[in-house]
Amino acid sequence: MNRVSDVARTFGLNPQTLYYYERIGLIPAPERNDSGYRVFNDQDLARLSLIERAKTLGLTLDEIKEILQLQAGNTLTCCDIHERLRKKLEQIEIKITQLQELKAELLPLIHRCEEQLSQQKIHTDCGVLAEEISVGKS
């Protein structure tokens, strides 16, 4: 049996995160020892491991909770997981596109700043952002 501090350390979490997971129903209320401390068994640790792995895949806590509920009801199928992972992949692809567009906007600004810096205009007022704002309004 592992206490909150041990489990938090094992998973690299703040102990408050474990309390939060319990509050929102991601993990069941752990057993308590004679002193009243929460203690986690192997099943709890396996569930936390699944939660942390799902988080590294970009799943939200709500998405993880839904998967855990299906799993608890023994109705989690490969099709369910496939559907959710495909949906997450689509969201990631949209985000990548948005980030690439942002990068395309930032690179010219960075190049203008670098030009000014190369001309020893280090201490001059940088109007690069102001120029972009006024250009965008035209």
From TrEMBL:
<dbReference type="InterPro" id="IPR009061">
    <property type="entry name" value="DNA-bd_dom_put_sf"/>
</dbReference>
<protein>
    <submittedName>
        <fullName>Transcriptional regulator, MerR family</fullName>
    </submittedName>
</protein>
<dbReference type="Pfam" id="PF13411">
    <property type="entry name" value="MerR_1"/>
</dbReference>
<dbReference type="InterPro" id="IPR047057">
    <property type="entry name" value="MerR_fam"/>
</dbReference>
<keyword id="KW-0805">Transcription regulation</keyword>
<dbReference type="GO" id="GO:0003700">
    <property type="term" value="F:DNA-binding transcription factor activity"/>
</dbReference>
<dbReference type="InterPro" id="IPR000551">
    <property type="entry name" value="MerR-type_HTH_dom"/>
</dbReference>
<keyword id="KW-0804">Transcription</keyword>
<dbReference type="GO" id="GO:0003677">
    <property type="term" value="F:DNA binding"/>
</dbReference>
<feature type="domain" description="HTH merR-type">
    <location>
        <begin position="1"/>
        <end position="70"/>
    </location>
</feature>
<keyword id="KW-0238">DNA-binding</keyword>
